[in-house]
């Protein structure tokens, strides 16, 4: 049954089009809205039941997506648009309901951000305008990718810098280098004062959405299992405030600690902008313009500015481009034949004694977010070395993260994190043992395990499983010249039989939630 949340503003028989706005296209100046006319267009947003109850979504994520869309709908209505925010079993049911009310008008939309929605809307006869929520169009990326032998992100990024004229003078990189990674990558600092987090106070609409979500997922209004946090903004004004806060308090320090995990701060100097970039409240161009303006007028450090610019014009654009370039079948890849079921610790942080996992999964439970390195070096690393099925892990990440969209999760998980694509995105798997985690995190000191040990009851599961993973895939990795050092190290291990035994115990303990 369809239900109306926002009622219409005035309109007439002159209505000519229905404009469908997906929950990740909340931008007044992009997609179909840039040519919209309140006199002739009706704006429709659909909250499908599949979106809310189809899977065990993190409530904070549901809250963010829904409350942002409802605020956006209300803002459009205040501007004079006729708006319908419809609840329906599916998106197509919602569009049918809009047609039932307004007549058989043509439906226009921006190209959606997943293959699935693209297919559904195409079959329904929706007319698309090009997706301009990125800096690189899908055809332009295809041209670049079609010319490559290997899809090295750094090559794409340098071409982006030149094409977009960012931090480049006469074809040469500002600061004399394309990449300041070597200066960044510092371990977490000691005795460092992190700026306070920006809070986004909740308005009445937010509170109503939070209460509705509790009801929808079967939680009592006062249940403590989930209370909405003040972490995420749900309006464009809030997203802009987050951007301004980042520029003022975090941009300068972004680079040096971008690869570290601190015990006393969950966000470090990361921007927390991905949710707004992904749901449309912010566009990459305005974020980059603001960062470059701060660089020029406030003399922000080039190492940090370049590192941030690379994430946005490089990684983000590359991941989106590769999603469309690689096609819908890429999602199902499982090149390492990983079949383990999702470990219980991913859905319940009390099911592990590993201090690093407890911290990161706890952070995700608290606010549906962890920065790039916990996602890669802790969560994905464990999925990789335990041989967890990449699709099970992908589904869990899609459900839990505030910024998770199909286009961004699929290449990050299947390519970057679990090497399930056999090396299309990354030439070697991102597997790390306890020593590296000990360097880049502050978790090991209080942990039940010892990062230096690979055998014995207190051996660090990461250390044991790192070697076991190499051992299990030795035949495959021996052919990869970028893995030769690791395989050489494996061949020198004198305790391989004990290590294999310990690995079996660790995997069993992880499977039953006791490690
Ligand atoms: C396994 C895995 C899963 C991920 N899933 C997502 C996801 O679902 N959604 C998502 O937006 N990012 C994802 N990322 C990328 C990255 O972790 C997040 O974009 C980042 O942590 C968001 O926090 P931030 O805005 O503070 O980022 P910052 O560190 O401040 O970086 C700035 C921006 O760069 C962009 N960016 C950086 N790296 C990537 C990347 N690899 N792919 C796409 N954009 C990138 C993001 O838009 C981000 O907001 C994933 C990374 C990994 C390893
Ligand atoms: S010892 Fe191992 S399991 Fe424990 S915190 Fe360190 S890396 Fe994680």
SSE layout:
Blueprint (H helix, E strand, L loop, with lengths): L2 E2 L12 E4 L20 E8 H5 L5 H20 L3 E7 L2 H12 L4 E4 L4 H10 L2 E3 L8 H9 L6 H12 L3 E2 L2 E2 L30 H13 L19 H14 L24 H6 L4 H15 L3 H25 L17 H4 L7 H13 L4 H15 L3 H11 L5 H12 L16 H7 L20 H12 L1 H4 L6 H8 L4 H16 L4
Parallel strand pairs: 2-3, 2-5, 3-4, 5-6
Antiparallel strand pairs: 1-4, 7-8
Bound molecules: flavin-adenine dinucleotide and iron/sulfur cluster.
The site of iron/sulfur cluster has 14 residues, from helix 13, helix 17 and helix 18.
Write up this protein.
The protein has about 525 residues and is α/β, with parallel strands linked by helices. The chain folds into three domains: about 130 residues, HUPs (Rossmann fold, 3-Layer(aba) Sandwich); about 140 residues, Serine Threonine Protein Phosphatase 5, Tetratricopeptide repeat (Alpha Horseshoe), CATH 1.25.40; about 170 residues, DNA Cyclobutane Dipyrimidine Photolyase, subunit A, domain 3. The protein has 21 helices and eight strands. It has a six-stranded mixed β-sheet with strand order 1-4-3-2-5-6, with helices on both faces. A two-stranded antiparallel sheet has the order 7-8. Helix 4 links the parallel strand 5 and strand 6. Helix 10 runs antiparallel to helix 11, helix 11 crosses helix 16 and helix 18 crosses helix 21. The longest helix has 25 residues. About 0% of the residues have low confidence. Iron/sulfur cluster binds next to helix 13, helix 17 and helix 18.
Descriptive labels:
binds iron/sulfur cluster; 515 residues; two-stranded antiparallel ribbon; single chain; DNA Cyclobutane Dipyrimidine Photolyase, subunit A, domain 3; Rossmann fold; six-stranded mixed beta sheet; globular; alpha/beta; binds flavin-adenine dinucleotide; Serine Threonine Protein Phosphatase 5, Tetratricopeptide repeat
């Amino acid at each position: 049954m369809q239900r109306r949340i926002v009622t219409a503003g005035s309109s007439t028989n002159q209505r000519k089009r229905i404009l469908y706005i997906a929950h990740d296209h909340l931008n007044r100046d992009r997609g179909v809205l840039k040519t919209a006319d309140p006199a002739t267009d009706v704006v429709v947003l659909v909250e499908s039941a599949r979106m809310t109850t189809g899977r065990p979504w993190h409530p904070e994520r549901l809250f963010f997506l829904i409350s942002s869309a409802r605020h956006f709908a209300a803002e459009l209505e205040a501007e004079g648009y006729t708006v319908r925010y419809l609840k329906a079993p599916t998106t197509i049911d919602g569009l049918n309901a809009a047609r039932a009310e307004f007549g058989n008008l043509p439906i226009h939309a921006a190209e959606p951000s997943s293959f699935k929605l693209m297919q559904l809307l195409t079959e329904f006869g929706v007319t698309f305008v090009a997706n301009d929520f990125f800096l690189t169009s899908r055809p332009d990326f295809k041209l670049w990718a079609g010319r490559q032998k290997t899809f090295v992100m750094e090559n794409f990024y340098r071409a982006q810098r030149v094409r977009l004229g960012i931090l480049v003078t006469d074809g040469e990189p500002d600061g004399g280098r394309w990449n300041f990674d070597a200066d960044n990558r510092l371990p977490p600092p000691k005795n460092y004062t992190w700026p306070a987090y920006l809070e986004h106070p909740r308005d009445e609409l937010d509170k109503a959405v939070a209460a509705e979500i509790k009801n929808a997922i079967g939680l009592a209004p006062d249940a403590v299992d989930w209370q909405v946090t003040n972490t995420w903004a749900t309006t464009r004004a809030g997203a802009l405030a987050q951007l301004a806060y980042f520029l003022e308090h975090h941009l300068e320090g972004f680079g040096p600690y971008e690869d570290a995990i601190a015990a006393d701060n969950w966000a470090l100097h990361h921007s927390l902008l991905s949710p707004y970039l992904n749901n449309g409240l912010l566009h990459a161009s305005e974020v980059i313009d603001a960062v470059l303006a701060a660089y020029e007028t406030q003399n922000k450090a080039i190492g940090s500015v370049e590192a941030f610019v690379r994430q946005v014009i490089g990684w983000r654009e590359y991941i989106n481009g590769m999603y469309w370039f690689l096609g819908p079948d890429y999602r199902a890849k499982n090149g390492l034949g990983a079949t383990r079921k999702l470990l219980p610790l991913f859905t319940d942080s009390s099911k592990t004694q590993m201090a690093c996992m407890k911290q990161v999964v706890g952070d995700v439970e608290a606010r549906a977010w962890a920065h790039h390195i916990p996602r890669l070096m802790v969560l994905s690393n464990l999925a990789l070395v335990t041989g967890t099925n990449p699709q099970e892990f992908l589904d869990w990440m899609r459900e839990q993260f505030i910024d998770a969209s199909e286009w961004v999760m699929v290449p990050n998980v299947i390519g970057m994190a679990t090497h399930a694509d056999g090396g299309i995105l990354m030439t070697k798997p991102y597997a790390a043992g306890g020593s590296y985690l000990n360097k880049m995190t502050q978790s090991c000191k209080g942990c039940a395990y010892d990062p230096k040990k690979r055998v014995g009851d207190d051996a660090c599961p990461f250390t044991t499983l790192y070697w076991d993973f190499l051992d299990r895939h030795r035949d495959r990795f021996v052919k990869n010249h970028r893995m030769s050092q690791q395989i050489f190290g494996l061949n020198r291990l004198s305790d391989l039989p004990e290590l294999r035994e310990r690995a079996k115990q660790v995997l069993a303990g992880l499977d039953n939630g006791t490690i």
